[in-house]
Amino acid sequence: MLKTLVGRALPACAAAALFWAIPSRAQTTPSGELKTLTGVVSDTMCGKTHMLKGKSDAECVRQCIKMGEGFALMVGDKMYALRGHSADLDKYAGQKVTLTGTVRGSAIAVDSVAPAQ
DSSP string covering 31-83, please? Predict the structure, then answer.
């Protein structure tokens, strides 16, 4: 009898827990907040100040990425490390973009990126 009760109750409890654990993307959750930000695509080494002399900002970003750095979004003086959509970020290296993604501290899981209007 106890096995039957546990066998029926456990899946129901697991389903209820899963339902309550899935957050709405538009609200703040422990895993982050969906936001739209506008800034310049850079890299985690250079940030606002690109260091390769004689190279454009875009060329510097791409070189730093090749050396193992990650993409970053500069919003004023704040730098966000970016995850995902690397091909789009490479395309817009050194340019101003509008980006939507889940912000967790100083990192963003990118959902979409487009040129800033």
Answer: TBEEEEEEEEEEETTTTTS---TTS-HHHHHHHHHHTT--EEEEETTEEEEEE
